[in-house]
Hints:
Blueprint: E1 38-52, E2 57-58, E3 62-65, E4 68-78, E5 81-88, E6 112-118, E7 121-129, H1 131-137, H2 146-149, E8 161-169, E9 176-184, E10 199-210, E11 213-222, E12 231-243, E13 248-261, E14 264-279, E15 282-291, E16 295-296, E17 299-300, E18 305-314, E19 319-334, E20 339-355
Antiparallel strand pairs: 1-2, 1-3, 1-4, 1-20, 4-5, 5-6, 6-7, 7-8, 8-9, 9-10, 10-11, 11-12, 12-13, 13-14, 14-15, 14-16, 15-18, 16-17, 18-19, 19-20
Amino acid sequence: MEKMFKRTLLGAAVATAAMSSISANAYEIGKNNDFNVEVYGVAAISVVNYDVKDDDKSQGPVVENESRIGFRAGKEMLPGLTVGMQIESGYVDNTDWPHGGVSGGVLGFRDTFISLSGDWGKVRVGRVLTPMYELIDWPYANPGLGDSWDWGGDVGYYYDRQSNTIRYDSTQLGPVNFSLAVGRDDNNNGGGSATHDSYFYGGKISVKAADFLTLHAGTETSNNFNGKEGVDTFGYLAGFEASLPAGFGLAAAYKWGESDDNGVKHEQGSYSVIGQYWNGPLGFKVGYTANLDSKYDGVKRSDADDILSGQVMYVVNGFVPYIRVANRDKVTWNAEDSVYAQKEQVVVRVGLEYGF
Length: 356
C-alpha cells in the first residue's frame, strides 16, 4: 500500500460530528460534556492493479482500504491555557506496525497525544509526526510518489512519526511559522521498552515570501538510528509551493541525507516536482520524483530510481473520485548476483475518498 496516502487528496478535512442518543444514558458528543469533542476521519477505498513489466505479470487488481478515524477533545484549564488530546487510528489495511504482529488499524497508530496550547503556540507530547517528515509527506508526495520519495531511497536518515516525542509548533508570526521536536526512537528490536540512547532532533520553518509563494525548509538528526548502535544520521529538505494564475500550481523540493555507520558514510539526494491545474471541481496533477545515485564510503552506486505519476480527480459534494496512473522505475540490490536489478512497474489506481 502506498505510504503517501497519509493525507486526503484535498488536505485534511475536519468537522464536528454530532452523535444521536440511542438510550437515555448514551454519550452525546457536544451535549453531555463541555470538552468540545470532535470525531473526524477519512473514508478512502481504491482498486489497484500493479503490473510488473519485466516479469510480464500482474499483482492485481486488489482492493486497498485506507480509511481511518480519529477523536479530538479540548478544554481551557486556566485562562489562556487549553489542554487537548487526540487519538487517531491507522489505515484499515496498514499492518506495518513497527513492533510487529499488530495491525496498523488500531487506535493510536497515527498522531496520538496530549497538548497544551495558547497564544504562544502549542506543545504536543506523545506520538506525532516529525517536523521534517511532515514536509516530505505533504505537499511533495502526492500524487502517488511516496514509494520513491517517502521511503524508496537507499539511505535511512529520517523518521515519520514517533511515540516518544515532544513537539512545539509556533503561532503564525507574520509570514513565518516553525516547529521543533525532540524524541526517542520507538524501535524496541522485538521486545522491551523503546531503544535506549537513541534520540532524534528536528525542525521545520515555513515562510510566506509572497501572496503566491511559500518557502519550506526542514532538518533532522539522530544518533543510534533505528536502534543501531553507532549509526548517526543527518538530513535536510528545501522546497516551495506556488499558486499560479488561472488555476495552476507548482511545488518542488530537494532533500539530502546521510547515515554514518561508525565512520562509514552512505548519502543520497532526492527531488520531487508536482504541477496541478484546477478548473472548478475538476483537478489534474502530474508529479515526478527521483532518488539520485547514492554514495557509499565515497563510492558512487548505480541505484537511482524514479516515479512519474498523473492523476485526475473531481469534487462532488465533498466526495473525491479519482484515477491515477504511475510508472515506477525501481532499482533493488540483487544479493545473489551482486548487482542492482531494475524493475519497471505500472500502477493504475481508481478510488474514492471522503473526509469528515
